[in-house]
Fold each of these.
Amino acid sequence: MFHYLVKEDEFLPAKEIDEKGLKALEDEQRRKILNMVSERDMTVSELVSELDMGRQTLYYNLEKLQEGGLIASEGSRPKYFSSDIAAYYFRPENVEPEQNPLMLENVPDILEGFVEDRKIDARVIVGAPYPHGEHDRRHKNAYKAGEITAILGNYGRKRQQLIYMDTEVDEKIRERPLISVAGPLVNTLTDELNSEMPAKFTEGHDRIITENSTYSGDETGFIAKAEVEGKERIVVAGLFGLGTSAAIEALSSRAQELGENGAVVKGYGTKHSIEEVEIVEKL
């Protein structure tokens, strides 16, 4: 369970540790390693190059930090070490924990796999702001992805980078659950995923189709979730800016109603300000 510490009016996510964690923090070098991997994911080679420490000693210290629940690792060759917790605390046995009042408890079905144990495991992908891809188009409204990260922040925390351009997607990023924002004309990841989604764009990109219906109109968008090659993927997009805004608003305000696979939605307002969103078909 995560709690929060307050430092200069800032809430810092804090993880409870046991005696092994306390023991690991006694060593100054381990604290230095912890600080480094809190800034960014690092490999053993990167750590060796920045520390006055042999590989065997480094491996020993990394093992102690992992045993103490202070850092995590992923990948194999190379293996990356990371920590996305801002603070740690030790709770004596006679002190009862309090419920964290700041973060929503129930992760919506649509975000299962994207937020696990109060940790954001997803990456949000937007189209690059310059002409690129098969359609040679640019994504002018990539700033909307900030709203997606705010939605994820209701349920989990992540200190590392969450938003990437589609031109930056590499094999390491592909290992994560991905949320692709905007349509296939401006986002090459959406173009790649389109045929696998329960709602998708037609070849002419002028309509959205599902198993049951066909939709058109500037105000139409969708949130669609599918497993692609064993990895969780979500597309949040619309035929035009208003439709994408409607999809983002639906994920923000009506996520619990979207079910496991998402929905086609219709927005009312402007492309910059959606006043109301309607769920027109659950997928």
Note: Residues 2-89 form a domain with the Arc Repressor Mutant, subunit A fold (CATH 1.10.10.10).
Amino acid sequence: MKYIRSSVYMLVLILVVIMVFTFYGVIKENIGEQYSTYEASSNTKSKILRIVDEVKSLVEKIRNLRFPYKMQIRIINTTWVLEHWGPPPKPSKEMLIKEIVYKLSLLVPPNFSIISGERRWTASFMAAAAGYTLYIVEDNFDLEKPVARRALAHELVHILQYHYFHVAYPSTLDGRLAVLALIEGDADLVADTFCNLTGIPPRPRLGLPLNNPYIALHSFPYIFGEDFVLFLYSKGGWDLVNKAYTNPPRSTEQIMNPEKYLENEEPVKVELQVNESTDPLYTDVMGEYYILLVLATKIDFKEAYKAAQGWGGDMLALFHDNNTNTWTLYWNITWDTTNDAQEFYKTFNEALVSLNASKINESMLMKKYQIWDYTIEIKLYGQNTFIIVEWREAGTKY
């Protein structure tokens, strides 16, 4: 699979065609067999409902699953989307902590705003599904364009998934992205099959928007998911895809290397031993894809991809010292072999050099850098690389 640095146009295409809103929504009401609408003209309503019925019929045949009766359609607009699904006017403490994790792990630059990233993503939804409800975002939904029908086919699959399968989302970032890749890959394969059967031009191959790492992080299920599901389909048809919901992929590594899913190669459980007197504010498993993004936004993509491939497991933790207002991020990554660890160690150092980081200390198995207001240390030992990032923040205490 080949990926390129995408333009702003491709980024917009990614956001308009597909959505990140999780199909396992919070809508629980007993709605019955009816359509409900929201602030749309009667002409627009009738057109949308007619097209939805046409698309539903073919999606049922492709996926070999029948739609439930308890389904509704809501026609909304971008203002409603931002009010109900968008981020709050001010970031919560949890959002701010995630923002700091993304910064200190070098996914995003120091001036990154998680609120801006979330608003940009949310405002571009064309359609979405949550529970048994299909949402149509009227001001983003152009009835005259074939891409609208593809988007409907994609979102309608989420309603089938909600009705027939019940997947629990893992607590880790890596695990959630893997499950989302199964879900979105299933929907994309059906949507592309729908296009092939109806003569709609195929969707352009999506590129990784490396110019916006936060959007690239959200884009993983849509860029890698369909190939993963297509691999399963080629081995066992829809039966094997359906079985994947009872035994979902455990890591982005399994999505990017689907043979590892069938071989049941699971992530290694990584321990993180640090000298801290308080509990961490955040812990997570970031995964192979996250590491790829950290590297690929700074150095050649092929080199970054190769360096990330040997991932075996990881554990990240974020601490905060209230007395000094210092954030410390610890990140222990276990690799498949010592050679893989050495390759990442070398490549990560190259990435820091590309950012014009100043080397302040080094030995054969350790290097320490200063960049922006961060102090970054990376150590190599056996099949592990250990990264420590410190940042003393002026201002607000947490």
Note: The beta strands are 72-76, 127-130, 133-137, 282-284, 311-321, 326-335, 358-363, 366-371, 374-381, 384-392.
Amino acid sequence: MAPSVARATSRASVVPSRPGLNDRRHALRIRRDGVSNKYYNIGRQRAALVESLFGALAPRYDLINDLQSFGLHRRWKKLLARMAEVKPGQKALDLCCGTGDIAFALHRAGAEVVGLDFSPAMLAVARQRAKKLPVLPTAPPLQFTTGDVMRLPYEAASFDIVSIGYGLRNLESWERGLEEMARVARPGGRLLVLDFGKPDGWLWRRIFFIYLRTVVPLLGEMLCRDAAALAYIHESLLAYPAQRGVAEKLTALGCRPVRARNLLGGAMSIHSAVKTKG
């Protein structure tokens, strides 16, 4: 993954990649036969399985992310926070907040932030990190809470910024997740999605998917004694519509403009959209 990082990271695109034929076949196979990964399920059991997965990963989650992305995930999360264009006094909701990276970045930019996740283990790490922040009387509020992205416990039009990092792909319904994000965003509010992508170039796409299928599970085996914990990434990405599908759904929800910024040659992407409908 290291070659051409600097060039690919700075490249922006508003034309996300199309799902490949193999991806569509894989999605059909999942519906027909199921999958071998113990953490992956497309049915109602998915939430419980994902919670089990992240509960197991929580103690070493940040280290795992550093190793499998060569530390680049931190740069991408900071970039998302800059793309949020936070203004003083704005309220932000960070979904699937995990150990809090994006929530902390939005908070440093001046937003009042709620970080929401359904994994108590992840939230425990985020709260421990929050305790280490300097106590400043002028700092905006920051809190972490348990919740379900599919049924957000907030009224419509409650937040100026709604973000999700590496979480949309894990939902039972990524479409429903985007609908909830749009529902709780105020008109003129910004929606941001950071997740794995599918590169357009066939060679880089093949190399990237081989990396996810072979190298990343080895990290799971070494750090968690569970290769399936990280093999899950490859399995879930194949069935995920990635850049184009997310952009099309945001557009259908009435967001304008909708932009997809490709990172690392499309291996990752950040969607930025502005809600225009009330």
Note: Residues 5-20+42-200+241-275 form a domain with the Rossmann fold fold (CATH 3.40.50.150).
